[in-house]
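Sanity check record (used in CI):
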Amino acid sequence: MTPTASLLLLLLLGFSEAYPLVDEGTEANDQMDEDDSIDISTRILNSNNGSNEMLLEGDVLVPTTRNAMKCFYQQCLWKKASNGLVTIPFVISNEFTGAETQVIDRGLKSFHTGTCIRFVPRSNENDHISIESRGGCFSSMGRTGGRQVVSLNR
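Expected output for Peptidase M12A domain-containing protein:
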């Protein structure tokens, strides 16, 4: 796993926490104002406190495979195309509201400036990330193959 992939996942989680997923005028905004003084690491750890997943460093999903040497010849990295871009197909679960989906989409698009990473809506790719609310904020490192869950707690 390269530092770039690790940074990508941590930044994605940071962006998801940076954009509030609440409608204006709700009581949740009052709570959000109180939470502004809490750093992102603490927010992620608090969000993952009740998670049933086995996590490392608070937000990295532990692989369930038995073989510790799963990544041969950089197979666990998202491929860089000849144009120098890393394209990552994604889907966003329909459990998120329209406003929440827009916030997530803005967070993904923010990677397009200053990085080689391009998140694109999934068409028929086997390897893709699936952004879901799984009772915490966590993801696997790198490319695991197939549907890869990135959990953003609602």
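Helices lie at 3-18, 27-35, 40-48, 98-109. If this sentence no longer matches the regenerated tokens, the check is flagged for review.
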